[in-house]
Structure formats: C-alpha cells, structure tokens
C-alpha cells in the first residue's frame, strides 16, 4: 500500500448479501470472499458465452466450477445449521450484556468548552443505563465518544490539559457499583505526553481498569499524515486530532460475579466525588465476597471504530495462548451523512464474527448498534441510525470452536497465489518452447 488508507473496501464485502456464501469467510476470510466473488462471476460468464459449445473445454471447465460453487454453498448451509453444544450444559457460560445508544451529536472541537453540551451528554448516557438496573447485567457497553474529550485517569498531565473528568469517572463507578457489572467504555488519556484513544474496561471485581490503545488511527480524522513535513496542513484540517497509535493487541479480561448487584445504590449526589466510590471498591470484605462468588472470567477482543474493518488486526489476537471469547466494537458513526454509510460500515464489520467464529457486539453512539452470533446471524433487533435506545441480551461464551481462518490466517490464499504464479510460468514456458 502506497497511500494512507481511510476505509478498506474489499470485493468480498459485496457478497455480504448472501449469508450462505459468507460462511466461506470462516475458511479464508474476506480476501477469500473476494476470490469467490470473482470465481462465481467468471464461471457464469463463461457458461453463458460457451453454452452453445457444450463440447468445448471452456464449457466443461465452467460445469466443474459450478460443482465447486455448489459445494461451497452446501458448506455455508451446513455451518448455518450447525450449532455448537455448550461445554457444560448444566451450568453454561452466558454473559448478560446491556448496550446503550445515546445518539448524541458529534463532539466537534468547538463543543469541548461547552459545559452545557457536556452536561447534557453525560446525563443522557447516565439516564439510559439507570432504568435497566433490574436486568442485572454482567457487562455494560458504552459506545465510542458517548462522553467525548475526556478520560478517567486522575493524573497531573490529564488535569493540565483538562482531559480528566471527575464526573465521567463518577458515572462509570456509580454504574458498576449499583449494578455489579463491568463497564466497557471509550476515553482519552495522556500517557507520557502521548494522547491515546482507548477502549477501557472497569472491573467490578477489584475496581481496576484495563485499557487498550487504538492501534489503527483514521488519517485526517485522528492524526494528520505528513504533518511534520507539511505543518500548514494543520490549518486546513483543524478538526484533526493528535492521537498516538498503540503498539500491541491487548485482550480485556472481565469477571462475572454471582449476586453482585448492590440493592442499596450509592449516593448519586457524589458523582463529582469519585474517590467516595473508589473507597467502597477497595473494601477488603467486599472484595473477598466477590472472589468467593466469582463464576468465571471472560476475555474481550476490543475493536475501536473502523479497526473492525481490518481482518489483520483481529488475527493478531489468535497468535497468543489466551484466546478471545467475544468481539466488541465500539464506534462513532454520527459523522456519516446517511444511513447507507452506516449500513456499509456495519456490514463490513459483521464478517469478523464469521471469520473468527465468535459473537460480535457492535455498539455505535448514533447507530447502527447490532449483535451477531458466530455465523453472522443477528441476535437482537438493531438500534437504527440516529435512534436512542438500549438493548439487554445474553450471549454464550462456552460453545466456541476456532475457525480454520483463525488457525491458519491467509496462508491458504498465499499458497494459492504461488500455485497460480507457478502454473502461469509453466504455461508461458511451454508456449515459448513450441514457438
């Protein structure tokens, strides 16, 4: 690649209209779907052109190709109908999730100092979660930029740049304290003078926060390419942020605890004093009880915004011993002008569920928020574009089987490309000998 890539559109995304053919992505990913699309199109083109010449080599080849396509389609039907059994049917590993979509306006820089905007935004996020406390979720998912501009690390550099927000930290702590749930959210923090865009998981078990730094930044949106060489670009792209990319993939580990809900909610008037809640999380007695009631831990593969469109970023997580159990993509599509763009973004992300064989939660600040199972089949009614709403649902984490694609990646495609190149060289050399 010789240019800065914004949104990666693959030919394989065009096959997303067929959930059956899409299952082929579990073997060879979106690149394999690109080949499949070309293969199907070429087969039918040759079949139509040589239909009158049934004894021709081309027609017979197209018939053989049709048989291959039929086998691929049959595989898709099999995978859709096949349901993995739980490893422990008596006590299945289910994760109850609450996902919110506040549909707040895009956080442009001119709103950063607008106290009324920030107050209204935080209040909306908070109010969406409060009515659902009866559902007792194990995980609350808050989308990207739901609370823009701020972070929850109370450090000197964050305070100096007015990034730290005690109210934001108080909201996260209150939600976790009252529901007993872990809270997944987006925040900004300075790390040794490097501004990071992060997916953070606040853990109810010990009151600690795990953070993943976004690795693939959006050019001209989250950073300015070639800014050092051409400083004047900053005056043209004034809305462009100054984020620094993360270096490594990182799983976020959460915990499901029995009877974790607090029936006496913490004092809501102390949202601006998060240290009050912090003290309660540090209670030795409470922490001991949580350890005693811990059911299991679960691992999240975090994807921030358009990172979910890059299959390579997802494959990185399957090189380690500990594997992810669920993919969670939090994103901000409020910048899009139309619903069509949001659907295209969402459709491209859905392929990651099929490639990995994992459930995928997509939480968007303005829509479209969806949940898919390991086959890319919707599990809930989506929250539409520019709608406000919440969804409470449960996903299974103990019936996961790794796919061929997560085990071997793009190896098959590389082998296929090499074989094509070798066959082409042999073909050319034979022609030269005859001539």
TrEMBL record:
Major location (coarse): membrane
Locations listed in the record: Cell membrane
Alphabetical list of Pfam families matching this protein: CN_hydrolase
SUPFAM superfamilies: Carbon-nitrogen hydrolase (SSF56317)
Keywords: Acyltransferase, Cell membrane, Hydrolase, Membrane, Transferase, Transmembrane, Transmembrane helix
TM segment ranges: 24-51, 63-82, 412-431
GO cellular component terms listed in the entry, alphabetical order: plasma membrane
Boundaries of every CN hydrolase domain copy: 95-397
Domain of life assignment: Bacteria
Membrane association type: Multi-pass membrane protein
InterPro entries xrefs: Apolipo_AcylTrfase, C-N_Hydrolase, C-N_Hydrolase_sf
GO biological process terms, semicolon-separated: lipoprotein biosynthetic process
GO molecular function, one term: hydrolase activity
Family of this protein: Belongs to the CN hydrolase family. Apolipoprotein N-acyltransferase subfamily.
Name of this protein: Hydrolase, carbon-nitrogen family
């Amino acid at each position: 690649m010789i240019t800065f890539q914004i949104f990666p559109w693959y030919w394989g995304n065009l096959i997303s209209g067929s959930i059956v053919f899409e299952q082929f992505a579990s073997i060879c990913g979106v690149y394999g779907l690109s080949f499949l699309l070309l293969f199907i199109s070429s087969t039918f083109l040759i079949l139509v052109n040589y239909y009158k010449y049934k004894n021709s080599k081309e027609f017979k080849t197209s018939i053989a190709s049709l048989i291959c396509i039929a086998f691929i389609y049959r595989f898709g039907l099999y995978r859709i109908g096949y349901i993995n059994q739980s490893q422990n049917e008596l006590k299945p590993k289910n994760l109850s999730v609450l996902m919110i979509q506040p549909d707040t306006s895009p956080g442009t820089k001119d709103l950063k100092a607008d106290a009324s905007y920030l107050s209204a935004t935080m209040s909306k996020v908070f109010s969406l979660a409060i009515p659902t406390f009866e559902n007792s979720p194990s995980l609350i998912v808050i989308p990207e930029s739901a609370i823009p501009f701020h972070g929850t690390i109370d450090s000197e550099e964050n305070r100096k740049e007015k990034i730290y927000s005690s109210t934001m930290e108080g909201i996260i702590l209150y939600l976790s304290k009252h529901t007993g749930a872990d809270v997944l959210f987006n925040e900004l923090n300075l790390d040794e003078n490097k501004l990071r865009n992060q997916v953070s998981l606040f853990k109810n078990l010990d009151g600690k926060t795990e953070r993943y730094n976004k690795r693939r930044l959006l050019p001209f949106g989250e950073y300015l390419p070639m800014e050092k060489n051409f400083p004047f670009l900053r005056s043209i792209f004034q809305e462009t942020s100054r984020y620094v990319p993360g270096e490594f993939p990182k799983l976020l580990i959460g915990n499901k605890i029995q009877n974790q809900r607090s029936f006496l909610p913490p004092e809501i008037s102390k949202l601006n004093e998060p240290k009050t809640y912090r003290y309660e999380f540090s209670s030795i007695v409470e922490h001991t009880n949580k350890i005693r009631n811990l059911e299991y831990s679960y691992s999240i593969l975090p994807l921030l915004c358009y990172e979910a469109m890059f299959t390579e970023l997802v494959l990185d997580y399957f090189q380690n011993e500990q594997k992810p159990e669920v993919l969670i993509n939090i994103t901000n599509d409020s910048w899009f002008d139309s619903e069509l763009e949001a659907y295209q973004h969402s459709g491209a992300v859905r392929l990651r569920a099929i490639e990995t064989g994992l459930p995928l939660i997509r939480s968007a600040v303005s829509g479209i928020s969806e949940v898919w199972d390991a086959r890319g089949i919707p599990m809930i009614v989506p929250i539409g574009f520019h709608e406000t709403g919440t969804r409470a649902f449960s996903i299974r984490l103990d019936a996961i089987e790794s796919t061929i694609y997560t085990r071997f990646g793009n190896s098959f495609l590389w082998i296929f490309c090499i074989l094509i190149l070798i066959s082409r060289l042999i073909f050319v050399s034979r022609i030269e000998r005859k001539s």
